[in-house]
Amino acid sequence: MKRSSFLLLLFFPIMVLASPHAEQVPTSSEEGTRLSLWIPGFLIKTGAGIVAKEEPQLADLLRHVGSVTVNVVEGDKMDARHERKADRRIQRYQKRHFKSLITVLTADEKVQVSVKWRKDRIRRLVVVVLGADEYVHVNMKCNFSLPELLSLMEDNAWMT
């Protein structure tokens, strides 16, 4: 009994923290998605321990990842303010000395991948995607060195 109550006390906050924010149920004329999700680092490291036997390369990658924040807006939930928000976030990351790895600008889509380096290690990875009917923002705290990341990407059997 003590063990089950302990497990309940341990995993209840995890489920609350990892669950998406509640939102009103859309009416029939309203179609779209708005998701804001924060995954704490200890939950990712717990997942790394779970997959360690079956996928050791993936587990090694996940051990270097801290907390992850994901924001997704698409469909009817998308409006003009999200374009302004994406531009503000990109400018804010440039002011905070993030280095842009990839920037893709097409007629209907903007994609930017930026990293923050500290002592030859990637500490934060940020992806901002703005399309005609979607907005995605991913912010990941991590601790990768470039040789570690390249060696993990060379043996990419776990990615397929």
Secondary structure layout:
Elements (H helix, E strand, L loop, with lengths): L1 H17 L13 E8 L1 H11 L4 H8 L1 E11 L4 H16 L3 E7 L3 E10 L2 E11 L2 E12 H9 L6
Antiparallel strand pairs: 1-2, 2-6, 3-4, 4-5, 5-6
Describe this structure in words.
The chain is α+β, with helices and mostly antiparallel strands and 160 residues long. Helix 2 packs antiparallel against helix 3. A six-stranded antiparallel β-sheet has the order 1-2-6-5-4-3. It contains five helices and six strands; from the N terminus they run H-E-H-H-E-H-E-E-E-E-H. The N terminus is likely disordered.
- Shape descriptor reads globular
The span between the termini is: 42 Å
**Number of helical segments?**
5
Let me know the largest β-sheet: 6 strands, antiparallel
Helix and strand string, N-terminal first? HEHHEHEEEEH
Give unreliable regions as ranges.
Answer: 1-10
Structural class, judged by helices and strands?
Answer: alpha+beta
Helix percentage = 25-40%
Mean pLDDT: 78
Percent strand equals: 35-45%
Query: How do the strands of the widest beta sheet line up side by side?
Result: 1-2-6-5-4-3
Taking Cα atoms only, what radius of gyration do you get, to the nearest Å? 18 Å
The number of distinct β-strands equals: 6
Question: What are the main properties of this structure?
Answer:
disordered N terminus; alpha+beta; globular; about 160 residues; six-stranded antiparallel β-sheet; 5 helices; single chain; 6 strands
